[in-house]
Design brief:
By secondary structure, this protein is mainly alpha-helical. Helix content is about 55%, strand content about 0%. Helix 2 crosses helix 3. The protein is globular and about 30 Å long.
């Protein structure tokens, strides 16, 4: 039987079984903290992870953080308009 070696390097790793959940009323509060610049780094990290977990999470966050939609618009333009 093959034995897994433990990675002892310092740093943060994410287990794929890790899930972040928020109540519906927490999303606008987190978004406001982002806009105000008062969100704690750990909360920002968790919120970012939550947004990336599911497409519906991204859509929900985009309702409150307009910049998320701007990123997608820029990405779509870059993919469809090439300058050579």
């Amino acid at each position: 039987m093959e034995e897994k070696q433990k990675d002892n390097r310092p740093g943060h790793t994410r287990d794929y079984s890790f899930h972040v959940t928020y109540k519906p009323d927490e999303i606008p509060m987190l978004a406001k903290e982002i806009v105000d610049g008062t969100i704690a780094e750990v909360h920002l990290s968790l919120f970012t992870y939550w947004i990336q977990q599911k497409e519906e999470n991204y859509k929900e966050a985009k309702k409150y953080i307009r910049e998320l939609g701007l990123d997608q618009v820029s990405l779509c333009k870059a993919q469809t308009h090439h300058s050579f």
